Amino acid sequence: MFTGTIKNLGMIVDVRPLSRGLKFCIISSLKLEVGTSISCSGVCMTVVAVNVFYFKVEAWGEALCLSGLIGLQRFDTVNLEEPITLNTPLHGNIINGHSKSIVVIKDSHVYDDSIVLVIECPKWISDETTSPSSINLDGVSLTIARSGGEVPWCIINLLYNIEYYIKVFQY
């Protein structure tokens, strides 16, 4: 489980194909151990190898199809979050790191001291979404301000200071 509060970034330094997935080698300042869970841009993965400079994770099937991981290349950055423990202060929302769908950012604009994102999503998501609730966008837990209507969409307000931590994939 994660909070969606991103405190670390990593850089992809290698991507290797597996029989039905991809293995990512990521440089970061985190001190991880083999077997540790890590949220990589919102997807829960297990660390399979580590050394002083990097760690490796593997992504398979559904995680690749329902996230931006499939498009990652060498030198791309990823949002990283370690899992919560019983001693972790709970800021943000509790998220599980299992992707449900890919969404598209249809529009963005500045409104007062925030950035507004208009997200197009599958109808089954907008039908089940109430306001306020949350969405995990690239590992960042964000509050949905409004949603619904004939066209499936939701609106998210971002404070300027959170923009530093968000890397939005272009689909």
Automatic annotation (TrEMBL):
Keyword rRNA processing: no
Lumazine-binding repeats: 1-93, 94-171
Reactions that this protein is recorded to catalyse: 2 6,7-dimethyl-8-(1-D-ribityl)lumazine + H(+) = 5-amino-6-(D-ribitylamino)uracil + riboflavin
Top-level division of the source organism's lineage: Bacteria
Pathway membership, UniProt: Cofactor biosynthesis; riboflavin biosynthesis; riboflavin from 2-hydroxy-3-oxobutyl phosphate and 5-amino-6-(D-ribitylamino)uracil: step 2/2
Residue stretches making up the Lumazine-binding domain: 1-93, 94-171
GO molecular function terms attached to this record: riboflavin synthase activity
SUPFAM superfamilies noted in UniProt: Riboflavin synthase domain-like
Keywords: Repeat, Riboflavin biosynthesis, Transferase
EC numbers, comma separated: 2.5.1.9
PROSITE patterns assigned: LUMAZINE_BIND
Pfam families per the UniProt record, alphabetical: Lum_binding
Enzyme class: transferase
Function comment: Catalyzes the dismutation of two molecules of 6,7-dimethyl-8-ribityllumazine, resulting in the formation of riboflavin and 5-amino-6-(D-ribitylamino)uracil.
Name this polypeptide is given: Riboflavin synthase
Organism: Candidatus Hodgkinia cicadicola
Highest classification ranks of the organism: Bacteria, Pseudomonadati, Pseudomonadota, Alphaproteobacteria, Hyphomicrobiales
